[in-house]
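quick one: pyridoxal-5'-phosphate bound model?
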Amino acid sequence: MMQKDFTTGIISTGYFKKDAYNALQMPLYANAAYEFESAEAMADAFQGRSAEHTYSRITNPTVQYFEQRVQKITGAVGVTALNSGMAAITNVILELAYAGANIVTSSHLFGNTWSLLSSTLAPFGLETRFCDLTNPEEVAANVDENTCAIFLEIVTNPHLEVADLKALSAVAKSKNVPLVADTTIIPFIDFHAQDFGVNIEIVSSTKYISGGATSIGGLVIDYGNFNWKHSKRLEAFAKQFGPMAFTAKMRKEIHRNVGAYMSPQTAQLQTLGLETVELRFRQASNSAKELAKRMKSLTGIKHVNHIGLEDHPYYSISKEQFGEYTGAMFTFTLDSQEACFAFLDKLKLIRRATNLFDNRTLIIHPASTIYGTFTQAQRDEMDIDDCLIRISIGLESVDDLLADIKQALV
Ligand SMILES: *Cc1c(COP(=O)(O)O)cnc(C)c1O
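yep, here:
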């Protein structure tokens, strides 16, 4: 059951076991292994007949409590915390893909995800079909019997393209293919991915959840709403575990073997981050919209791209899917790359840094940084514009941010 109020739900999530010292904050269990009373109890734990912890690459009480909070608030059947957003994406793909399989996605992807698919996984025989995810017919035409997933980012970074999730889910359902969504840009507060037919949600918890860029982390959230007998890799698990097949294989095999489980130190920081994420997200979203609105009338800025502004092509679909709060990231364009560099160099309050959803406002020129090692042809394929600047709004006042932008434009 999903809890109605986000923050109440997060804060009231109980522990699996009563804490030995009644600690109010989940203690940091910074240990690698766990001891057993008997050889039999040890065998039971290793063979899955008991839920005791064995080794912290597989499970850990502090990480499990973080997962439990996310599971309770999202209504998911299983949550796995990994040590980065990229580890979460990699684990999901390694669970679904096989040599000869294909994944249908957009060329509008986070740069490292694009590279993971195009460079890292392609040599293992996974084909990636880049298509226009805002065109369901094109997506349907790209799916065949070897499609292991349709993968998308719910708001593409940095283009801010928003696909219609219900339309994509209809295609996915009709073809018996799971819909996998990277939802990092809009956290699971007002936006409920499962209501739009998403089967597996992936989040870089480094961003909003970490509580001010304290740590790197990722989440795989399984809604148990796909019939895994249709997945070549999961058929056997589907017979044994039914709707729990995805999480069962993730926990019993994939994340255990890949070895990218979240560290307990990170889980403790991010557990605390969850307690304030609703507050921070709402404030940063409001500030981003207000700042974007005010920046539209500044001379020197060619175009402001923010999905929460009414004249944006994806305004209606964003509102339908995400509600009033459309996130703290937006982009704008200046006349040239030189103008972008000169502008960035003059900023005093806004910080030149990658990352998103820190408590401080961060700014970056994507073409020369995140996409800087790609060729011009690859950047063209990904529609990365030399004149584009990406900004991620923090918790500073809008007036102060606008003043900094104004002084840097002259
Ligand atoms: C940052 C980001 C990632 C990668 O997450 P890390 O935690 O940095 O590994 C993946 N997808 C999107 C949309 C992101 O913004």
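Residues 84-86, 110, 113, 153, 157, 182, 184-185, 204, 206, 216, 218, 356 surround pyridoxal-5'-phosphate (CB under 6 Å).
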